[in-house]
Amino acid sequence: MRTRSALVVSICVLAGLTSCRSENQSASSTSVAATTTAPAAGNSQPAGTTASSPPSASVAGSFGSLKDVCGPGSPTASPTQGVTASEIDVSTFTDEGFTKTSEMPDTAAVFTAWCNAAGGINGRKIVSHTRDARLTEDRQRMIEACKSDFAVVGGGAAFDQAGVKDRLTCLMPEIPAQVVSVANAGSDLQVLAAGKTPGYNTYEGYFGWLINEQYPDSKSAVGIISGDTAVTKDIGGVDQKLFEALGGTVTYNDLYPATGVTDWTPYAQAIKDGGVKGLVYLGDYRNLAKLEQSLTDIGYTLDWIDANSNAYNPEFITLGGANLAHQTNYADLGVYPIEVAAQNPATQSLIDLFKQYKPGATITLPAINAFSSWLLFAVSARDCGDQLTRRCLYDNATKTVAGLDGGGLTTPADTTDSNGKPRVCWAAVQATPTGWTVPDFKATDGFFRCTTYTIPSAPNGKPKTLADYGKTLDDVK
Known about the structure:
The chain is α/β, with parallel strands linked by helices. The protein has twelve helices and 17 strands. The protein has helices at residues 96-99, 103-117, 138-148, 164-169, 204-214, 230-245, 265-273, 285-297, 314-320, 345-357, 365-382, 390-400; strands at 11-14, 17-21, 31-35, 87-94, 125-132, 151-153, 174-175, 222-227, 250-256, 278-282, 304-306, 329-333, 362-364, 415-416, 422-432, 435-437, 449-452.
């Protein structure tokens, strides 16, 4: 799973801005083109997929290339908070009460049902407690988690900085689906299934492909338009520095009200007047669809638009409609696209599991990332045996994450070359009036393209550490 900037798939849900790309790759509240349906007689398949051989995920507890993720056992110990001889209590964070999207709890329900049916973690059943931060209550939910649970797994919240102090003070490990704030992303006791690329901008490969290979004429006229929030403005600034380091020139950089505007024509006209050829859009994809309608209405077509991974969903295709034949939209992913699931057993297995355990739920990009996080948690906990402690989980997860690919769901976790530079893999998708497709982005490693990154990126701030709160790793039991 590819990360952005030094972090993971990142989401923010701010005021009227339902989602925005952060310099950490992630997406929230974005649904991929596969909605599961209730099982019917025979081998029914979700729309857009084809019949396949029996899934690699089964009650045997294996998923894709990961074998024996879950299975039976005879545990006897209750070695730490949240772990008994029969259960493991964990927290899954979400902003469902605000966003009205349930991708994190849905994925937790699917994974735990499948894993528990296979025997659990060495015989211990997983119990996931949904912690709904409702956008503004992250700290309250973290305080609740600290009172009873073993770890935080497979979730994320927009204002996750609020709970970092409490999580580190209570020595709670975290394997999240996504992280957002500088204070939280890469903080101590946190292991990202995507790995980390500290100090480097991990859009280097994707944006470099756009302006230096796919559309070289656009590199002298790149535009950035961002929702007027602190987070998106910061991202826009980082992106501008990246384009300049790639040899590009940003000739247009503008803000729009985070809640959107009634008339996008002035923004479209400014883009046209500036001769912008490639546009990075930061904000809610619904507003992007309106902006693109205005661009088409005034007769202006860009070479490319980075719609970002938040737009990777069926709704954007519907909203964009015929405009997607005039404006070329791309998104950068760190997962195997749902649209070609029939070519990838792990992705097809995920669809089958959702169909079995959560019929009717939509498989989202955050859900895929969340499932990968659950897999990392399970194999790390499994290898602790009967003495499942927080320190053992954290140590195992830290060792396991290198090269992890969610059993085939995601790009391999970040690794480094012989000089210690991060080697990050990515994929691109393109929006068309009939759906998302996969363009030729010159893959190098199977389906994905892997690039050694060289361009530094300095975040505004730094993640929190145990030492910030008078703790050390030796305190974790």
